[in-house]
Design goal:
- The protein is of the alpha/beta class.
- The protein is 25% helix and 19% strand.
- The chain has one domain: Metallo-beta-lactamase, Chain A (4-Layer Sandwich).
- A seven-stranded mixed beta sheet has the order 8-7-6-5-4-3-16. Strands 9-10-11-12-13-14-15 form a seven-stranded mixed beta sheet, with helices on one face.
- The radius of gyration is 21 Å and the shape is globular.
- InterPro entries: Metallo-B-lactamas (IPR001279), RibonucZ/Hydroxyglut_hydro (IPR036866).
Length: 366
Amino acid sequence: MTRWKKRIKGLLLVVVALGVTTWLVLQLPSFGGMAQGARLARMQTSPQWHNGRFENTPPYVSDMSILLELHDLMGDEVRAPTFEVPVQKMRTEDLALPAAPGLRAWWLGHASALIEVDGVRILTDPVFSKRASPFQFAGPARLHPAPLPLEQWQNIDAVVISHDHFDHLDMATIQHLAQSGTHFYVGLGVGAHLERWQVPAEQIHEMDWWEQANIKGVTIVCTPARHYSGRTSMNNSTLWASWMLKGPNHSAYYSGDTGYAEHFKAIRTKLGTPELALVKVGAYGDSWMDIHMNPESAIEAVQDLGATTLLPVHWATFNLAYHAWAEPVQRTLAAAKGADVQVATPRVGEKFEFGQPFANQAWYLP
């Protein structure tokens, strides 16, 4: 065999080995499951399903360029805190008590929050593992601890999941909460992941946009967002969403990941104005705007919703973008001042009680 034939054979063996290794890795439970049968058939009837996948309207067309991404990547922004982030530790004893009437929220870092609406406890996109990754030995690590360790979470009535990316859907967190009977409200297709993780079928509620469910008198509405999905690739194999939580007396909205679009006005028209809006303000870039709005767009979204108060989320916990660590909240406050939007910026783990005085502190500065 000539030398060049040996080289080609060796290269082919390497390619095959890499392919097999990649396939084996993607079979790990953390990558979730695949929709089949009745689940897939239901997905295919969704108005959002086009050409074998879910799509935004109009479809998202990436304008990312390698040169622009490399320019941003090489910036000199300080993307992690230079001091210990002040975290308000929560007490497991408080979760042992029934949720009180009223409306309150605890921001838990990144997109995770605990919301109590008229006596019902709801978590948004809870991620309490060390890393937002399919592996706990590699991937974006937390920049601060969770205000309560995963094993101490209990008595959570419901979880709403905006989409299946690793910084929003965490296998270990889901499995722990499922053991105590928590119900999970997810977009179409996401249930396949939970099913693979042994979550009982009666605790999984897959929903299309504008569908509603009820738990203990609180209505959970799956509402539109503008994003993308995929646990193993950007294949839009599951449906992304935002969520409206409407109790008899109070209401809250959670945006999930989204670009700015007309869906905020549509939500207000169909469902009314939420009192509290937890809206994404971080992890953005000039080439991401169609699916990751920036702080100024988040303020526009709050105005469209007509929300009374904004609680900014999706920043501070994982280094996922090119901007400086504290930039999202600083830009949010500046934009809100000019738009006359009320913003609450609690520390991680600090309680915000709607209707009660709350004094913002610049805890995000050294």
